[in-house]
Amino acid sequence: MTKKLKFSVGNDNGNSEQDIIIDGKLIRQPNVNCPVDGLPWTEEIVPESLVTNLLDQLIVTVDSPSARPGMYYVGQFALKSGEILDNMQVGIDMKCDVDLPIINTLANISGYAVQKVYEDTNELPESIQVKVDMTTALPVTQHNEESAAKFEQRFMINGQAHKVTVHLGKKRVNVEVIFSYVKAIPEATPVTFSIQKSLDGEWRKDDIFKEFAETNKLDKVTGQYFADKRILHIDIGDGTTEYPVTVGNQFLRQFVHGSNHGAGHAIEEALDEFNRLIHLPDSPRQFFSDVIKQPTHKYHDRAQKTLRLPLDNQAKQIIRNVRNQLTKTRNEIDVLIVYGGGSILMRSVLEPYLKTLCEEREIQLFYIPKEYAVTMNAEGLYIFTKSKIFTALKAKSQQATV
């Protein structure tokens, strides 16, 4: 018998990492995959033994009109496999056109569905059908009515099912993923939701605001503080940085701006020298990123050394773009908020520039702490999926197709 599930999803497909929240559960994966010809297991493996860590050893076969069919290692398992990786090209790929976000999203949703059914029933089913409501995002420089509709339709495919086989040893679980409704919004703008609200929809009250309150000599700050603020966002990713301006939950289209700068460009610049220092002919960008994140890694100091100057170059480019945005807005900004995976790596070089800029122009600086910086977009996308706005958009879309 086919098990049936329904998921609400917030899906942040970054150049380096995919952060996807499924019914409140955060999944973080390197945003890579690799096509393969067969399964890696030769010995008999008890399928149930793979369920707990399934998303770290994710192997799927995808049959979908929206992506190249085949068997794939996905995420962490692909990164550690030694196979040739497929990833998004920094500053080059149009996210709405490539297969990677489709394949990895289907894989993670399907893998989580298998885990969920096993958790509920203590059995591995033969088949699962999952219906999904999802919000995802495109870079602001790539986001327009046409590209958003194209990206949405690659998931929704007019109500057709994407067919995914999840492999657990020799056991196969067939998963049908049907996207009931998908909304693609500009990257960075979801943070207007996650900075104000927690995942349960209440005003946010956690430690994310502690440093901001102390620096700006404010009493206890909650998400409500930002409900009417005019905010310039600096969302630093691997390949792009977005600089949208929002007021409350409203995205100001006249100030759309993004640039092809970010931590990934610095890593690309440092990669040849890093490979030379560790005596490798080649290594992927995601490997370098993993080394940087692990202070105890034997190559960590060498990675930092090669990265210092490229990071400073990227920081100066980002500051130039921030200045341009402030000029366009006539400095009418209340808070400048910095976040994204690249913001952690760049903080030591970027924050001094930003502090000077904000002091000059009487703007509050909110540099999101590293514990929260990476998942702000995913949280905002999930909160949007659970919002009344999403419900209204879905209802309007369904009425239009009747």
TrEMBL record:
<protein>
    <submittedName>
        <fullName>ParM/StbA family protein</fullName>
    </submittedName>
</protein>
<keyword id="KW-0808">Transferase</keyword>
<keyword id="KW-0614">Plasmid</keyword>
<dbReference type="GO" id="GO:0016740">
    <property type="term" value="F:transferase activity"/>
</dbReference>
<dbReference type="InterPro" id="IPR043129">
    <property type="entry name" value="ATPase_NBD"/>
</dbReference>
